[in-house]
Write a structure and sequence with these properties.
5 strands, five-stranded mixed sheet, mainly beta, 74 residues
Length: 74
């Protein structure tokens, strides 16, 4: 299982665990959650503290991912 943590405006979703083989499979799983549909296209994904973009990136038991929505500051 991998742990997925949601940050910023998505932090109300807390932490969840999923059984996914790669980033593509995780994105497909997350896209089924209506609360995430509008966010996923703009979010970055961090795997064990490193931003990843390759949908073929393998995931393994114990990995921690963060869903990072875009932020703006003032």
């Amino acid at each position: 299982m991998i742990k997925v943590c949601f940050l910023g405006p998505l932090s109300t979703l807390g932490e969840c665990e999923y059984d996914c083989a790669n980033l593509s499979e995780l994105k497909e799983t997350l896209s089924k959650d209506e609360r995430l549909t509008d966010w996923l296209k703009d979010c970055a994904i961090s795997l064990n503290d490193e931003i990843i973009t390759d949908l073929n990136t393998p995931l393994k038991d114990g990995d921690t991912l963060f869903v990072l929505p875009p932020v703006c500051g003032g």
